Structure formats: structure tokens, C-alpha cells
Fold this protein.
Amino acid sequence: MGIIKYIKEEIDVIKLRDPAIKTTSEVFLYASFHAILRHRIAHWLFIRKHYFLSRWISQRSARKTGIEIHPGATIGKGLFIDHGHGVVIGETCEIGDNVTLYQGVTLGGTGKETGKRHPTIGSNVMISAGAKILGSISIGDDSKIGAGSVVLRDIPPYATVVGIPGRIVRLNNAKIHPNDDLDQVHLPDPVKMEMCRLTHRIEYIEKKLGGLTQEEQECINKERCNGCDCMVNEAE
């Protein structure tokens, strides 16, 4: 009965988070469905020290699905891996409930450490395509990791992280949960934000020194960014 309940829960997760699915039967074609189901079996064997058999199951699953999950990894309820090819989850990785991973995500180590050497991912986290989270670090609940980001340090809850290395560009946005919109695109650009802050600071200094003509000021105003997170009035 346990396995039947799990299968029903996994079907509901995939139907909820993938807008491409049209019928329930399609779930059985998803690589994520098979990879996670096989991981549950492999993990059960791993914690009972059947190491060879557990690795045999996980390696066969990796070859068939393109998703490599070490049988030692601890995974909560409601994990969804969209597309899945190139996803790697290390041995000591811990994943909370209702986490979404996209293709190319790596939850890996940084070398030949011993003990806990892979990330701990909180609940309700979304990790976008190609993101790399490396080392024994923690990603807080309800966080969002942008596509292609490389995260090497702890991230607090309700944070949005982008870039290489990953930088927190939004924090304490507790009203929006990543799995509500699964938006990988509309994220702040930290480079643009810094350039905007610098530009406005220069404008402020020039204004104080009286070094701009009216014509020059009008030209700058026309080129002002619109709608970014750079806090235009920060210097004033």
C-alpha cells in the first residue's frame, strides 16, 4: 500500500508543476517519475547497508533516465525534476519537501572531503536549469536559485540567488513561494543593479559640484533605467 500511495502522490506533483502534461498516463513516461521511484528503493537498501545492490539500482536508473541520484541522498516528499538530463545529486545531500529541480542541476561536493560534503536543500525550493550548488552548505526554505548560478555559501530562507558566484538579489519575499510560479526568467540582474547605483551616484556628485549643464542633465534623464531594483534615490 505504501508504494501505491507514493505513486499517487508523485502523479499529483508532476501534474501540478508541469504545464506540458495533458493526461495522467503521461506521468509514466517522465524520467523524473522513474528516477525518484528507483531512488526510494535504492535508498531503502542503502540505509540497510546493501551498498552494491543499491548502487546497481541507482546506476541503471542514471543510464536510463539521465538523472544520477546517489542512493545515500535523503529526499523528502514532493520532489519534481523537470526534464532531468544532467541532474546530479550527491551521497550526503539532503532535500526537503516540495523541491523543484530543472535539467543540469548539480548538488555536489567540492573535493575529497569526508563526512557531510553535499548541500542541504530546504523545503519549497526551486533550483533553475544548470545551477550548481557545491559543498556542505544550506539553502533556506522557499528560496529560488537562478539558472546557471553557482552557489558556494549558505543561503537564508526566502532568498533569490543569481550569478557566478551566486549572489542574493532579493530577500524576505515570504509572500511568494517559488513553486507557485516556477519563474526562472524574471529575476533581478545584479550587474545591472550595481551599474545603475554607480551611475546615479556619479549623477548625484556631478549635481552637487554643479558640473552639468541643463542640456547634459536632460540627456542623462532620457537614458535613465526604468523599473529596475537599483533604488534611484539611494544617494539623495
